[in-house]
Amino acid sequence: MGATLAVALFNFTAQAAMVWSPAPVEQGHGGHDRRAGKPYLLENGEGANLHLISPKLESKKISATSGRVSVKPMGMDNYHALVAIRNIDNRHESAIRYVYMFGKPSKESPSRLMGYEKSALEIEPAPYAREHWRYYSSTDAQFIIRFRGEVIAGAEVTMKTSNGTRSIYTSDAEGLLRITLPEDFSDVKAGRRANHAAEFMLTTERRDGADNYITTLSSGYHVNPNHWQSTELGIAVVAGGMLLGGLIIWSSRRRKER
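Above: the chain sequence. Below: its structure as tokens.
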């Protein structure tokens, strides 16, 4: 369901930028075979060149069928970059998504891949959610906006989510962008597995003479665990209070009986 919402979000107009999202599960495929690769969908990406870049910055060309790709492991663990590049006349587009792959230890820090220039205009996680294990609602996330390797101050960035939120942010003097992932989940249930992840997409543009550059960064984000952790804590506090009260009453009665 979460992937279907993401597709609906990122297919809202013919002028939408390219963006990666998890591919919907095909009919008859209830599970996922890790050896077959992770399925992703590139929206609005006709004619784009696609590459998967490893933690060691090795690039492998990949192909798509109707925008759908199967990202297979490159033999090492850690984050890989799924990159789409398209240049048509004076319009230069890119779409980037970071995908965790399993394999032999790469012994590389994800920051090396994040900081590697994958397109002229780029939204770089600073850091990626690995520092927090994942992106959560009601938490802040940081990014750096770069153009040809240089940080860009005052860059306007649009955030859209598959749950319908739209916000606009601006990078500071150091090119740093801080966004707050929205609390836009409905019907939240207790437990991480009970709630589908949603998608967020960041988009920014920059003009350089007659050339126009546009890039997107997409990722999943999850319901903040505080929703059920606070409930569990509250139940534990109430139960503890009741138990303590019961012990006090029992002790008082015992003293009276003596």
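The domain at 2-224 is CATH 2.60.40.10 (Immunoglobulin-like).
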